[in-house]
Amino acid sequence: MDKIFCDGCGVEIQTEDKNKSGFVPKSALENEHIICQRCFRLKHYNEVQDVEYTDDDYLRMINQISGTESLVVKIVDIFDFDGSFISGLQRLTGNNPIILIGNKVDLLPKSTNKSKLIQWMKKTASDYGLKVQEVFLVSAANGQGFDMAEKEIETRRNRKDVYVVGCTNVGKSTFINQLINRSSGVKDAITTSYFPGTTLGFIQIPLDEKSYMYDTPGVVNRKQLVHYVTDKDLKLITPKKEIKPRVYQLQDKQTLFFGGFARFDFEKGLKQSFVCYFSNQLMIHRTKLDQADEFYEKHVGDLLQPPSPETLEQLPPLVQQTVKIPGEKTDIVIPGLGWVTSDGGITISIHVPKGVQISLRPALI
């Protein structure tokens, strides 16, 4: 059979796997104009769906941006900055200016120092080799922070195209929909958003008569914890409402378990309070350090939940990372879960799934 390509995004049409790009039901092959499920849902339901590509596919597509004159909008998850950061993005996008968007700000405790968070995001992006023009904190779900972000995007793009990039599960699709609904200035922008011959793998959305917003496929970063959990567990570890801090007074040689996904060992230091910022639904348990191994083996998936049995089958083993916290208030960040705030001057060990890398930052609260 001759190859058929989507009239919307140009991807090759297939009828075998609805979770992969280019899927259509077999009955759709009889239509005169064929668009893939992803474009269909964008056109009719205002939904932008992520599809999985290999790393090489993604890098090849994103590298096309380096040959354009455009604005790049990079979306990251505030609760998983490292896991949702795309390495090498500067090289892939050329000299185009980049705006960094931290999503899910509505879930942070109100006492969070947002200015300090923005400065930390700028510095960390720079440490990764990415020069950003501005950083904004938004909630794609409710529109918080969009007034300033939208104004900056419109000014920076100067009637040029906009490419929105990000890993899967960072809220990129929700961000795009929010932005389209607020800023396109085009009546029924979604229903007119697909045109034959658009770039393979991108979805093209008109912003004005001469420029477009391009939704790029979400890249899969295997450092993200979310790729090892079931949808059910993901709902439990992903905050839905403002996080409520939980405080634990610990002496050295005590341990905290965050569900069965992470273990926090207070190895050495004076007694102090540890403030835990995680999904309100994630169970936290305290035990003695010398009993922690046995406690985990006996109770993971039971008292220590999530993970569910289905997630445990695919979850990498917990690996220990030991760090000394300087004598200042510090956040110990567990990517994909949350963070613990310490007054510092201590030694701790964190046990997290292999491949997940913890990080430290000045306390935001």
Automatic annotation (TrEMBL):
Signal peptide: none annotated. InterPro entries: G_CP_dom, GTP-bd, GTP-bd_ribosome_bgen_YqeH, Mito_lipid_metab_GTPase, NOA1/YqeH-like_C, P-loop_NTPase. CDD domains: YqeH. Pfam families: MMR_HSR1 (PF01926), YqeH-like_C (PF21516). Residues 56-222 form the CP-type G domain. SUPFAM superfamilies: P-loop containing nucleoside triphosphate hydrolases. Coiled coil: none annotated. One of its GO terms (molecular function) is GTP binding. Transmembrane segments: none annotated. This is CP-type G domain-containing protein. It comes from Gracilibacillus orientalis.
